[in-house]
Design goal:
This protein is an alpha/beta fold. It contains eight helices and ten strands. The relative contact order is 0.18. Bound molecules: adenosine-5'-triphosphate and magnesium ion (MG). The site of adenosine-5'-triphosphate has 13 residues, from helix 1.
C-alpha cells in the first residue's frame, strides 16, 4: 500500500489552557482526512465548526493543544513536530487573517522563509527576478515586494501575496484557509488561476482548501469535498456536495 502524502487520524484538539484556568472545551472532536499527492481537497463548514483551528493545528500553533490523534506527512508522524520543522518539510499554511510583520518587507520575508524552507540563500536581486514573474501572473504591481508585510494590504493583496509565497516556497502540501474571503470576482479568478498555475508547475502538490463559497470550487475543481460540522468531517464526496450545500445549507449534515 502506498503512503498518503498527508493524513490526519482521529484528531482531537482544544485551545491551550492556562495552568490554573478551567480546561477549555474541545474544538476538534475526532477529525480524519487523507490527502494523496496531487489532490485538491475542499473543506466546507459553518462558522465556528473548527476549520481555522484545524489549520492552526496543522502548523503546530502554540495556541492549540492536540490532545489525541495523529498527523502524518510524507510517511512521518509529525504530530509533535514544531512549526519551523513542518514548514521546512514542505507544509505551507495560508492564514485566514495574515499577520502584519512590522518593518519586514515582502521580499525580506520571502528570503528568510525560502532560506528556512530550502536552505537556499538567494540574493535580493535573484529573488526579485523570481518574484517578478509571479507578480505579473497574479496581477500585482512590481513595487509590491518592497512594502512591509501585510501592512495596509487590502484583502485581495493579502491573498495574492499568500499565493505568491506558496509559488516561491514550493510546498508539498498547501493548506489555504479562506483564500477567497474578501476577494472581488476578478481577484478571485486571479487567485484561482494562481493556484492552478502553481499546481501546473508542481503537479504532485496537495492542496487543502478551506472555503465558504462554491465559486472558488468552480474555478479549482477539487477532487474531494468534505463537510465539517462540530469538529469532525461528517460527509465527503465530489462537487455534488458543494452543490447540495448551496441549495440546502448545512442543516441536513447536522446530526
Ligand atoms: N483560542 C481559542 N480560545 C477559545 N475558543 C476558541 C479559540 N479558538 C477557537 N475557539 C472557538 O472554537 C470554535 C471554532 O473556531 P474556528 O475559528 O476554528 O472556526 P471556523 O470553522 O474557522 O469558523 P469561520 O468559518 O467563522 O472562520 C469557535 O467557537 C471559536 O470561538
Ligand atoms: Mg475560520
Amino acid at each position: 500500500m502506498s503512503v498518503a502524502l498527508f493524513a490526519v487520524h482521529d484528531l482531537h484538539a482544544r485551545p491551550a489552557s492556562d495552568e490554573d484556568g478551567p480546561t477549555p472545551t474541545e474544538i476538534l472532536k475526532g477529525l480524519n482526512l487523507t490527502v494523496d499527492a496531487g489532490e485538491v481537497h475542499a473543506i466546507m463548514g459553518p462558522n465556528g465548526c473548527g476549520k481555522s483551528t484545524l489549520a492552526s493545528c496543522l502548523l503546530a500553533s502554540p495556541e492549540y493543544e492536540v490532545t489525541s490523534g495523529r498527523i502524518e506527512f510524507n510517511g512521518d508522524d509529525i504530530t509533535d513536530w514544531p512549526t519551523d520543522v513542518r514548514a521546512k518539510a514542505g507544509l505551507f499554511l495560508g492564514f485566514q487573517y495574515p499577520q502584519e510583520i512590522a518593518g519586514v518587507s515582502v521580499i525580506q520575508f520571502l528570503r528568510q522563509a525560502l532560506s528556512a524552507r530550502k536552505g537556499i540563500d538567494l540574493s535580493v536581486l535573484e529573488l526579485r527576478l523570481a518574484t517578478m514573474d509571479w507578480m505579473k501572473r497574479l496581477g500585482m504591481d512590481s513595487s509590491f515586494v518592497d512594502r512591509y508585510l501585510n501592512e495596509g494590504f487590502s484583502g485581495g493583496e493579502k491573498k495574492r501575496n499568500e499565493i505568491m509565497q506558496m509559488a516561491i516556497l514550493e510546498p508539498d502540501l498547501a493548506v489555504l484557509d479562506e483564500t477567497d474571503s474578501g476577494l472581488d470576482i476578478d481577484a478571485l479568478r486571479i487567485v484561482a488561476k494562481g493556484i492552478r498555475e502553481v499546481r501546473a508547475d508542481r503537479p504532485s502538490m496537495g492542496v487543502v482548501l478551506i472555503t465558504h463559497y462554491q465559486r472558488l470550487l468552480d474555478e479549482l475543481a477539487p477532487d474531494h469535498v468534505h463537510v465539517m460540522v462540530d469538529g469532525r468531517i461528517v460527509a465527503s464526496g465530489g462537487m455534488e456536495i458543494a452543490e447540495t450545500l448551496e441549495i440546502s445549507g448545512y442543516e441536513s449534515f447536522r446530526s
